[in-house]
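hey m, so remember when u said the tokens were messed up on ur end? i reran from scratch. heres the input so u can diff it against urs
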Amino acid sequence: MDPFALKTLNAERRSRRAAILVTDMGDGRDRVVKEGDLVAGDLGQAIAKAFRTGLSGSVEAEGRQFFLNVHLPQPRLVVIGAVHISQALAPMARIAGFPIEIIDPRTAFASAERFLEGSLNAEWPEDVLTRRPLDRYAALAAVTHDPKIDDYALKAALDAECFYVGALGSRKTHAKRVERLLAMGATPQQIERINAPIGLDIGAASPAEIAVAVLAQVISAFRSRGLAGKAKGEAA
């Protein structure tokens, strides 16, 4: 591998940014393509698909054979609220390959006895997210119904351009939330990215069913990154 390409690739990986090492199988030359870089033609389409799927492999484009070695950051699922939905969501997220972090300053809820999986933080979101900031490869689900806990995390997720942002609550609840987020400096375009009510519209009723709907929406958002015009799933 070209030393400059290796240095570039390692820098992207350290910064939790996606990159693909593109190797021309004909002459052995390689280059690093960062997520968001413009690559024209069939090769560009193959690269865009590889960024979404995370799958490495060979492709043919412009009459040449290329190997795409894909490096995606491990996605994070950050849940604000140690509630019943979170209890059901934690094992599901692990199985689906999304390490989960649960944040809730209410120690009666955020107890090790209630959560056997995932990282549990009985602290305010402001403290946890300052130590471990959100980024474009994080998903955030706010499920406490408490503005004092949810709102800061939602604003932080919007500012970090998380690939998924969801919030529990009715449309009436969300309308009040929008007013508060606007007062905090969020833009209408940012707020439009919030999935509220949260989760795909599968008619979910129980906490476990809502957890399924949320995880499905997170997966859909992750795998459709970069696809313009994809409709947001509606909620449970």
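this time it looks ok to me. The chain is about 40% helix and 20% strand. if urs says something different then somethings off w ur setup not the seq
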